Amino acid sequence: MNSRRDFLQKIGVSALALHLAPLVGWANNTTNNEKTYDGKVLRVAIMGLGSYGTRVAEAMQSCTKAKLVGVISGTPSKVKAWQSKYGIPEKNCYNYENFDNIKNNPDIDAVYVITPNGLHHDQVIRIAKAGKHAISEKPMSVNAQQGQEMVDACKKAGVKLLVGYRMHFEPKTLEVIRMRQAGEFGKIMFFQGQCGFTIGDPTQWRLNKQLAGGGAIMDIGIYAINGSRYMTGEEPIWVTAQETKTDHEKFKEGVDETIQFQFGFPSGAVASCLSTYNMNNLDRFFLDGGKGFAELQPSTGYGPIQGRTHKGELTQPITTHQTVQMDEMAGIIFENKKPIVPVDGEEAVKDLKIIDAIYLAVKTGKKVDIKLS
Ligand code: NAD
To answer: How far apart are CA 367 and CA 240, in angstroms?
Structure first.
């Protein structure tokens, strides 16, 4: 790695630099980040203290504009452990039965829903009714109709609805988007997204249709769907898709193991993607244009993201995705900041409409038109 000075010169003075402090041992004069930021802090309660909720909570410790202040959980022992680890007061602890009472709690601004996919719809609508901003994990729900109901409920309640699309704030991803917008790849012709891993425990909620809403597409294929949109800068207008299933015991009816899908875009560009719960080493995006290319591999894991273009290696800084995401979301909620790639409910509904279309294409074996607006 370069010297610290070279490194800081490279990244320049930006908000991003603050997030790098814990990673580069640059914490001497920023040990208490709150001292350097005197704006409004987004006070967040996390719902669902599972594996990703734990990762978000850890990452939020390095946030400047967002702070973990509450929890919603069905497991009292986890609540106790989080209270002592993060200094969460008893009055900010809720369970799945009583969390509507959060409406009477002036010390919580937003709830981050990190539960199984099939629960997001009802939970977000309850949060909206309690008058709190909602952040939902991806997929925002299990179909476009549910997603639209969530958007409508949040609009009606006058609260924001955001989705944990952490890649929308990732520096190398944003550099590829910048280069594409600047025309550096020329006319975009092709995108390839390969997303998958081999799933373990057959009893987990990810393999339960009711809780997961489907299979690999819902969980990991969504990265290729969303990525094909932000990498090409276009919305797909048609999809074809083919499913293969090698293990009917583990992947029951309605739970997809492997789906290959292809998109067509208005410009004539095409995409070819693979989503699977039965193969490893698949975390790669490739974008091809008339004048150049970009490859990200790994492209959507927790990092470090790596990549290159026809101009050479991408050298943008490594960040903790969830730290940046939560600080940026505070800006979106309180300052109406507009991210380069949207992370709102409407953006998530587009992905859900595409997922609906992929399942329909698999079922019918036909090319399905996609209408996103
Ligand atoms: P997990 O199984 O580790 O955690 C789920 C949590 O929900 C647990 O604490 C569990 O107790 C709780 N829960 C509440 N009601 C439940 C019920 N009826 N059945 C099962 N669990 C219930 O799962 P996870 O990996 O943390 O995933 C949670 C959400 O976060 C999913 O929507 C997933 O897609 C998303 N996620 C996003 C990312 C990302 O990078 N953005 C990464 C992982 C997971």
So the answer is: 5
